[in-house]
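Lab notebook: predicted structure, single chain.

Context: the supervisor wants predicted structures on file for every construct in the current expression panel, including those that have not yet been purified. This is the next one on the list. No modifications to the sequence; it matches the entry in the shared construct table.
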Amino acid sequence: MAESNLQLSEKVLTVPNLLSALRLLLVPVFLWLILIDQNLLAFAVLAFSSFTDWLDGYLARKLNQMSRLGQLLDPAADRLFILASLLGLAITNQVPWWLVIVIVSRDLLLFFTLPFLAQIGYGPLPVNYTGKAGTFALLYAFPLLLLPQVLPESYAVVVYPIAWAFAFWGIWLYWWTGGVYLLQVYNLRKAALTNSTILVNEQEK
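Prediction complete. Output recorded below exactly as produced.
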């Protein structure tokens, strides 16, 4: 069954929502740890947060606790953690700045679609499974990119290729989903304008 067809609850205090809220609270903690060169603790926080990203979705389905708040809170926590991870890793020269630009520019592009959606009575579009897969890949790439900083140098030869494989796979899925979202926005706006034109024509008859 598609995620958009599931019955959404109005509950706020659910286990998945608490995990998403915890992930939000850990964003500044991770950023502070990586900036003060506490890479081991930063890795632990990032790995834990990446795990909770999977866990809250699993529990929401398992416990039947899909909620409207969770639909907003979970992707918001994901976006903030991705941004914090990128900035922290880039500022400490552990990833190139082009990676920040490629990922953040996609989110900025989708952000500017919100006014168009609002004009036709829509809020942010729900996250689809491809988007979740892209986010999953990125949130697992970042701990792996940080891991060689806390392991002997010889391990980097093995870890870095895996980390960048996750990163590039995540980027591809991230932008593919962005393209799908843009197409959805275009189709929704086109349908709304068509319906509006038909309504005006009927009123003028």
